[in-house]
UniProtKB/TrEMBL annotation, chains A, B:
Protein family membership: Belongs to the AHA1 family.
Lineage top rank: taxon: Bacteria
Domain Activator of Hsp90 ATPase homologue 1/2-like C-terminal: 13-130
Protein name: SRPBCC domain-containing protein
One Pfam family hit: AHSA1
Amino acid sequence: MVDILHRVAVARTSPEKVYDALTTTDGLAGWWTTDTTGDAAEGGVIAFRFPPGGFDMKVLETTPSEHVRWEVVDGPDEWVGTTIDWRLRTDDDWTVVMFEHQGWAEPVEFMHHCSTKWATYLMSLKSLLETGVGAPAPRDVHVAFPD
Amino acid sequence: MVDILHRVAVARTSPEKVYDALTTTDGLAGWWTTDTTGDAAEGGVIAFRFPPGGFDMKVLETTPSEHVRWEVVDGPDEWVGTTIDWRLRTDDDWTVVMFEHQGWAEPVEFMHHCSTKWATYLMSLKSLLETGVGAPAPRDVHVAFPD
């Protein structure tokens, strides 16, 4: 099992604000994909849709301002059963976001792609919170072919 | 041992051009750090310097237009002994760049940071080749604290 790891730090932003961007459909639509629907509270299922397809995530855990954990319950075969883990902490007036997409069966080329793409979406989350403007799909940053 | 994985695809660019950007100090200075010196040919050592410090890389392998491999011989403790592996291939008029930073001892927070930062530097490489303008240090994209 292999994992995608990332970290960003969001300037002049409280953990509460980052947590809101991870646990409300409006927040998620501001940085990941504008087509976000469902129930982002613990126990709910969030439907994320992109031009090429999408993911359904079951919300396994939400600890306010600290921790969010999702399990992929529908989407590409390589994603189903993997988990997305978010941990937040304060460092002066920054919020540090530790990200792990855990449990990939193999380090396939699609995993390489998703690792780079996650980085651009984390930068979109950072930008949304720092400037008010994110880059969610369909106006996302392209890292490879139209993706 | 854990690895950082990424992939970008560079539009309208031959593998030869990407290979040049990985195996010449001028090319490397265009996307990673402007302070790049040394010998980027196989068997040489390249010195990459950034405002907070730097890395020395021994060039283990260079297969024109296909493969480049470096070993970190000096730098932060977590980096020394790890390897940076680049594989290139053509896909229509794109060049696909498969990147692996292999052999981290543990998935420490610094590894999370470097994973995100590598993504931004790979986007800098892509931008350099597609537009002529990269974002090497010290004008690099910041993902966390001043980094």
